[in-house]
Amino acid sequence: MMQKPAVILSLLGCLVFYSCSHRSHPSSSRETSAETGDVSKPEVRKKPAPPLPRVISVNDDAARKSTDGRLYYDVMGHRYWKNYRDGKYYLFNKSMYNDPAFKNPG
């Protein structure tokens, strides 16, 4: 009579150890190079960013003023500065510092 619970417990223990010994293996789509031992990863492609226009038209009420009084407008992390001659906003570049068309006339 005493042997029956011991046999059941030992079978249950073997079953637990057997089920825990299985490892999860990566899918076969990953290939290992025999020469280098490197594992190649699947290529991740990013969406290309939409092209930004160089010139935009913005209502001056929506624009902000910088500390020197010039108007600017931010779009998706890019700053556009107002050209006071034609009233349009141009994507920032270094030549705007010395160009009198981008300085506040007032």
**On the 0-100 scale, what is the average pLDDT?**
82
Order of helices and strands: HEEEEE
Instruction: Provide a count of the helices.
Output: 1
Instruction: Characterize the overall form.
Output: rod-shaped
For the sheet with most strands, the description reads: 5 strands, antiparallel
Estimated structural class: alpha+beta
The whole-angstrom Rg is 34 Å
**Which consecutive residue ranges, at least 5 long each, have pLDDT under 50?**
none
DSSP strand count: 5
Measured by DSSP, the beta-strand proportion falls in: 15-25%
Please state how the strands of the largest beta sheet are arranged side by side.
Answer: 1-5-4-3-2
Outline:
This protein has one helix spanning 3-20, and strands at 55-56, 64-65, 71-75, 78-82, 89-91.
Brief descriptors of the model:
106 residues, five-stranded antiparallel beta sheet, 1 helix, 5 strands
Task: Please characterize this protein's 3D structure.
This protein is an alpha+beta fold and 106 residues long. It has a domain at 55-102. It is 17% helix and 16% strand. The chain has one helix and five strands. It has one helix at residues 3-20, and strands spanning 55-56, 64-65, 71-75, 78-82, 89-91. It has a five-stranded antiparallel beta sheet, with no helix packed on it. It starts with a helix and ends in a 15-residue tail after the last strand.
Secondary structure blueprint with pairings:
Layout: H1 3-20, E1 55-56, E2 64-65, E3 71-75, E4 78-82, E5 89-91
Antiparallel strand pairs: 1-5, 2-3, 3-4, 4-5
